[in-house]
Structures
1.
Amino acid sequence: MYISKILNYLTILFLIVFPFIPYRFLKFLYFVPVIVPASWIFTELIPVPRSNVTSADYESVTKSIYRRFNKNITEQGTSNINAFVLVLIMLIIATRFRIKANRF
């Protein structure tokens, strides 16, 4: 269970840091922040399978992170924050592409 949690945290960290990777890699991997969450939605899977957890006991990894800042956060609030973060990531990437295109 501990390794699963660590891998989930690393996946989230990767998605947050993703817009800041060097441009030469970013131009080939631009759609990763969209594909990864979309695959979670369409396949109903999380990045790393949870083990030995019943659905009643399960709390999403992002919700457990957000609970540190807001004790009363709901699943809908968690989904809204996740969507905002993903849109922000894509906006940062698009801005970087635009800035790079205007330089040349």
2.
Amino acid sequence: MRKTEFRCNKYSPGVLYMMVIVGVATGLLLFYGFLVVSGINKGPYDGPIYFQEHPRHAIYLIFFLIPIAMGLPAWIAKKYWSSKEEEGQLELYDEYAVFYWKNKEFKIEKGELQIKIPEPQAIWYSTYLLEFQGHRIVLVNSLKEGKEKRRGACSLDIAISELSPYKKLKKRKQKDRAVFDFYGIRIVFGITTPAVFEDSPYYVDYQNIVTIPNAPFVTCMVRERANPVHVVADVQIDIKLLKDDSLEEKT
């Protein structure tokens, strides 16, 4: 059994959309209230004397306040939404996984999970949709964690990758998957992660990473724990699965 902890945003994108809509509507109402209180809404002939004498200034003021009335509430909503986060945990077993989130426990049977990535994705956060056994969970990367790391994969990205072996595969895809035995370790091409070597006599050498510019993967050597000089294989790893310290050491 392996444990993986992750951080994610507290609220879903749907909550952000509602906050932005309510905020913009409130800003426009306040803007209209300002026009009524100031008398600008009465026009260039019945409004305040200053604006009767300088009608263009009223137009300038209106067009200056409209983006503020709409943009400021949206910015406040975004800042509040992105400042809230919570933690979750995965317990990974051979035939199932246990998912702890929002003080709830979910059991995910192997082969019963669907991981979807909604399109189009936002520029500044990633969204994952988990569907399993009647449950539908929306997860968003922790924006606070993203600011702290600045580069590399967030803990939620790694957790989702760890869940990949539990995904439901179509029959045709199941036949197409390359499965092979590596010194007693079952490897499924495109699904198995480096964590499979954690409790084995071998380990992935992250000290000597071979990178290819613009490639989505890196190459690492697999060494024997008892004799690190003995290289038994090399593996290609999705760059999203690498931790920041591995990247920092290489760069």
3.
Amino acid sequence: MEMDEQVYGLIRKCNVVKRPQLDAFFPEKERAVGRALKRLGRAGCIHTNYLTGMVATNETALEQKDPGTLAALWVLAELKKKGLVEEFFLAGREEYPVRIVVIGKGELYDILFVGRQEQELVQSVLRRVYLPDCKHLVITEDPDQARNLPLQRVFAICQVTQEGKVIFYEGWENGG
């Protein structure tokens, strides 16, 4: 039942996740994750949309899912694989366009998502918000968006595919 608690804790913390993201957070425990999801679903603790593959705390959370946060969760899973995550938090509305704040190995990271319509907003945020100890990881929908960002304040730039593969832009992974 420990896996049930871990899976439920992650879903509660994130509100909405894709089923494969749970596998990414618990590598080599996919069957245990699946069993935990079944038990949590039967107990009414979670809601699963089998058409979209989304798992959430409730139907309202599913309806309010944010594509930027879902993309940021894939980047978070990648950081976790590299051993860079000790704790993480979903960013509050006032921190938008930051989606996730990560603490790990004595470092502070934030994961931002730049949607096609958010280019100017993110440029403004990166110019105004300068925390010297915070490393910005920026997810873009379009590689051309990266050219217009204040790159001296960016630790890494990446793109996330529909399948959840994180592609770091050459020269930017690990602070390139």
4.
Amino acid sequence: MKKTLQAAFLLFSLLAAQKLSAQNTKKDSTQLFSVSGFGYGFNTGKISDILKPQFSSNLGAELRAKNNKFFVMGVLDLISYGYYQNYSDETGNPYRIKYGSSTFYMLEVTPGYRFNGKHFSFYGFAGPGLGLTNLPNIEVNAQQLTATQVNKYTFTGSAEAGLGADISLGAAFTIFIQGRYMHNFNKVQNTNVDLFPVFLGIKSNISAVLGVFKKKAAPIIVVPVKF
């Protein structure tokens, strides 16, 4: 499902950018880019015994200031892991997941600064995040002799900082690669969660959308009528 959404969003971005880029975007104007990427959420330390990186994706938008240096990026990360439950989270329940799937749904809003070249740009960013962690658990019914896997969702906050690079493919498209350090404030199995997501993807120029909100309504002219 996540891969299907990723592919659909990427296709929509490409088609939209191709159409909208026909309208020239001035370099000294505010620009809006859609962001769509894929990668892995690497980790290190004790948490690497619990979370094993799997294919992940992100979707979002990047708003650049008129000078094309300052920007704000809002992105929803869907970071997936294989999950090993080393001990049960519930008192009195000795059963645990040997291997399952876990997903971090993280929304980050990060301001940043760009260093622009002719075809290459480098940027840094930092900011907060908020999201949900999905961890599988086992519920056992001793009377019915059944065991059911259930997903446990928990709200979490995060702080992150990262670096990235863009390769311009013209006014419409940019290929990007970025990596960052993300610290989650909630622990998993009493273990600190420090992640290093790395994403590769495409930014599509959809700045023409901003023009829709800047258009002024035509003035209403009242012509006096003489009797």
